[in-house]
Each structure stands twice: as structure tokens, then as C-alpha cells.
Amino acid sequence: MEKSKVRKVRSDKKKDVKPFVSLPISECIHRISYITSRPVKDIAEELCVRGLYSKKAIELLSEQFKRDFNLNEYTIYIGDRTIENDRTNKIIGPKKRITIRFGQQFHSRLGELAFALDMTLASTTSLLLEYSIKDTELVNHLLRRFVASELDPKRMEQLKEVYRFIRKENPYEEEFTFSMFINFLFDELKCTTESFAKQVGEWLDLKSSR
Asked: What is the pLDDT of residue 45?
């Protein structure tokens, strides 16, 4: 009798997680996706990965830990068994479902976070996305890296000069972050944009020629 072949599963095969997120969070992720010309699922994955290793994001999440969570070999958060969390993340208002694909190793790490929160994996991902996208340093880093990779050094320096000027002359009390600046450019240029980076380059060339 011929033996049936056992199909091997790749150890690095990615797994889907499909969390619901609030409409503003979804729109923000789609905006970053548009600006960077990267798929929504890739942006969402990077935000989650960076968020899980961001002390700022985990500090906020730790307030809801029912069980202990090891952030790294030096930091452990002690859970509070008296905390009563819903198994699912309750979202007030309109929401949308997005699909994210995680590698096996990160998927397991996400499972540890879900265990600490005593929540489903999808709801844990939803919460992590929410805290990650509100971390201005994290989003700034993501957008800075994209702009730096797409613009030549001269244009990048010009962009920084424009940003420094606006930040210095900002009459408002609230902080004007780099991500806010990029979003401002997005709003100004998107109506005629083929490629955001190309349009920014043309905008900078126009400013320097005046």
C-alpha cells in the first residue's frame, strides 16, 4: 500500500488575525498606507510589532493586565487577578475589520499578551493597534523612515527645514509632530497625487526655486 505524503507546514508561515478597529483608527492606518504606498496589512503588522516592544504602549496596556507579562528579560509586569476584563474589546461607534498577517513567532508573542489581558487574540490586536497608533514617536519613526527612503538627501534636508520652521513658528500650544506635518502635506497634495513622495519632491522643488 502506498503511503500518503504528509504535507509539511512552513515554520515561518504567517497567520491571519482579523480584529475590529474603530473607524478613526482604520482611517489613520489607511492614510499611512496611502502615504507610504504599502499595503494596509503591512502597516498594521508593523504598528503591532513596534507597539508590542514599545514600553510606552505596554505601560498603558499593563493597567489592564490580569496575569503577569514579560516585556523582556529585564521587565515584568505583575497582573492583577481582581481585574474583570471583557473577553472582547468593546468599540463605541462605527468600526471596521482589518486583516493582518503575523509570523509564527510574533503570533505566539501576541498570544502571551492576550493571556495577560485575558482577552481574545483579535481583541488584543485591536487594543495594541489603538495604543500603537496613538504613540506619536512610533508613527513619526515610521513616516520619517519612509520619507528618508523615498526622497533624495537634498530634498529630505529641505523637508526637515520646512518642518523645523513650522514647528518653531507654531503659535499653538500643542506639539506639532512630524507625523502631523506629513498628514498636513497629504491633505494639501492628495488631490493631484500619483505618488505622494513624487508630489512632495515637486512641491519642495517649487519652494526652492522661488
From this structure: 95
